[in-house]
What does this fold into?
Amino acid sequence: MSISFYDEVGGHETFVRLVDAFYRGVAEDPVLRPMYPEEDLAPAKERLTLFLEQYWGGPSTYSQERGHPRLRMRHAAFHVNPDARDRWLAHMRAAVDELALPPLQDATLWDYLQRAAFAMVNTFEPSGIGPAADGRAATSFPLSPPSPH
Ligand code: HEM
It folds into this structure.
C-alpha cells in the first residue's frame, strides 16, 4: 500500500501549520485581506486546510462539508488578477518555507500551489470585480452588443 503525500509530509498537523502561516501573511496584506468576506479569517482558514488535506490524500471532510470543490467557480466573485495571485503565492511561499520540508516534498507542494494559483486568475483588470470593489461590474468592457435605443 502506498502512503499518501498527506501522510508523507506529516498529516493534519503539517497542513494546519501551513495554512496558519499563510493566513498570517494574508491578515497583513492590504490587497488580499479586504477580499475575505468574513471579519474572522478562521472559517476561511478551516476551508483551505480541509481542501488541501483532501487534495493530498487525507480525509475527505472538505467535500463532505462543502461538496465538489469547483475552485474556479468559487473564486469567480473575487478579483483574482496577477497582483492578487502573486501576493497569494508570496504568502504561500513563506508558509511552505516554515515547514522546512525535504526538497522533493517542498517542490511537489510548491509546484501544485503555483499551478493552482495561476489557474485561479480570472481577470487582468487592475481592479473592479468582487465584494472588495463596491459592486462594480464584473468587467470594464462590454461582453454583449449595446442594446438598441
Ligand atoms: C490566486 C490567488 C487567490 C486568491 C486572491 C484567493 C482568494 C480567496 C478568497 C477571497 C476566498 C474566500 C474565503 C472563504 O470564504 O473561504 C477563497 C476561498 C478559497 N480558496 Fe482561494 N484564492 C486564491 C487562490 C487559491 C488557490 C490556488 C487555492 C487552492 C490551491 C485556493 C483555495 C481556496 C479554497 C479551498 C477556498 C474555500 C472555498 C469554499 O469551500 O468556499 N485559493 N479564496
